[in-house]
Design brief:
With 254 residues, the chain is mainly β. It has one domain: Beta-galactosidase, Chain A, domain 5.
Length: 254
């Protein structure tokens, strides 16, 4: 596998790292932290993909990335290809796989990481049913998924440019990755409301895509504010309470 390297096409810069696109920037501003494929087995363990071939070439002013490989562990029967086109207009990223055997998975497909710098910025989410939600990425850590049933999400960069991330081929939702000490918001599939693990059968096809585009901002895209009615307020009472002693429990077999 080649070493990570950064390419620049017009106002867009991207670091290519195997099948991953990292640090996607528009005019120097971080717009998307990472786009990548993921497989998590029945125990939610991340299993790496095996890369068997990759190429990067320039075609008509665009950079074309093609990466092929297989899964590992339970997903070894999966054969997949990532294709990405990076132009001065945006990015098109596709994950296409076909299974040659049966296995179980909790998650299989594309994930998108949104930068922590976007916390508190206004967003517009298009849902699978065509409805739209205007809100804000949470400033405080959200214990629940900020957005469900996502088809696209648009947020503003510091200079007012809108970044639109369109999600195709699956139902996506977002989690606040800070719950796992990661400085990002993670949009993923499949929704965790669907019972897991999910069975993958020989012949099953996984075909998903993400499209990233940029457009000038307008004054009508207002900054969303926190709903003060639902805000949590913490006050002190002056009371003192004994708390349990901290310790470590180790099971020892005889």
């Amino acid at each position: 596998m080649t070493q990570p390297h950064t390419i620049v096409v017009g106002d867009i810069s991207v670091t290519i790292d195997g099948a991953d696109l990292r640090d996607i920037r528009w005019r120097g501003q971080e717009a998307v932290r990472r786009i990548y494929p993921v497989f998590q087995d029945r125990n939610w363990t991340n299993r790496l993909f095996v890369i068997t071939g990759e190429s990067v070439e320039e075609v008509d002013g665009s950079v074309i990335l093609t990466v092929r490989g297989t899964g590992s562990f339970d997903a070894a029967p999966l054969h997949w290809e990532v294709s990405a086109s990076i132009s001065d207009r945006g990015i098109a990223y596709r994950f296409h796989g076909i299974s040659h055997g049966d296995f179980l998975r909790n998650r299989l497909g594309i994930c998108v990481l949104h930068p922590m710098a976007a916390a508190g910025t206004s967003v517009e989410v298009e849902h699978v049913d065509g409805s739209r939600t205007k809100a804000a990425l949470p400033t405080d850590i959200s214990p629940n998924q900020p957005f469900l049933d996502m088809r696209s999400i648009t947020h503003e960069l510091p200079d007012g440019t809108r970044t639109n991330v369109r999600l195709l081929g699956e139902v996506f939702e977002m989690e606040d990755h800070r719950n796992w000490t990661d400085a990002s918001f993670k949009t993923y599939c499949t929704p965790i409301s669907i019972p897991f693990p999910v069975e993958v059968h020989a012949g099953d096809v996984i075909d998903q895509a993400v499209e990233v585009s940029f457009s000038p901002g307008t004054s009508t895209f207002e900054l969303a504010t926190t709903n003060q009615a639902n805000a949590i307020e913490i006050t002190t009472t002056g009371e003192e309470t004994r708390i349990p002693r901290l310790g470590l429990c180790v099971a020892v077999s005889e």
